[in-house]
Amino acid sequence: xxxxxxxxxxxxxxxxxxxxxxxxxxxxxxxxxxxxxxxxxxxxxxxxxxxxxxxxxxxxxxxxxxxxxxxxxxxxxxxxxxxxxxxxxxxxxxxxxxxxxxxxxxxxxxxxxxxxxxxxxxxxxxxxxxxxxxxxxxxxxxxxxxxxxxxxxxxxxxxxxxxxxxxxxxxxxxxxxxxxxxxxxxxxx
Length: 189
What we know:
By secondary structure, the protein is α+β, with helices and mostly antiparallel strands. It has 2 domains: 6-89; 92-188, no CATH class. 60% of the residues lie in helices and 13% in strands. The protein is built from 7 helices and 5 strands, in the order H-H-H-H-E-E-E-H-H-H-E-E. The chain has a 5-stranded mixed β-sheet, covered by helices on one side. The longest helix is centred in the middle third of the chain and has 34 residues, at 56-89. The chain is rod-shaped and about 85 Å long.
């Protein structure tokens, strides 16, 4: 999950509320805000802005066609924004990861490895540290632990993962690249 800038954060907050009311969004943004105004403009253009060419039945037909087109426009806009939201918030990846961890498997997410140690403990480890030398890494253990903690806190901003992880004790571990079984540093939350 990438760090969100202010614009992305505002978008996610607004869209989180709007996405719950799909029918309302499609109707308002498709029919009311796009379809009906386009229908009125189209009606006047087709009648060349002459009142003698205007007819109520033609007006109703034009508005009905524009409203139907507006529904399709609203659906496409909703789907477009939903896709952007899911891409920004990584909802699908996170939900799949939660399912993996619940099934007892290991989930690799960006530079974190998340797994269940037992029924009460969730283990979060680093996946990528570029320091091959254990001595160099041991000098920077606090910094490495802070990096893993920041990544974990960013992951916890997802409401589903936050709810999932709140049911467990969380153990954060830092390893070097030597494939050792014992972590260099460990912290329990």
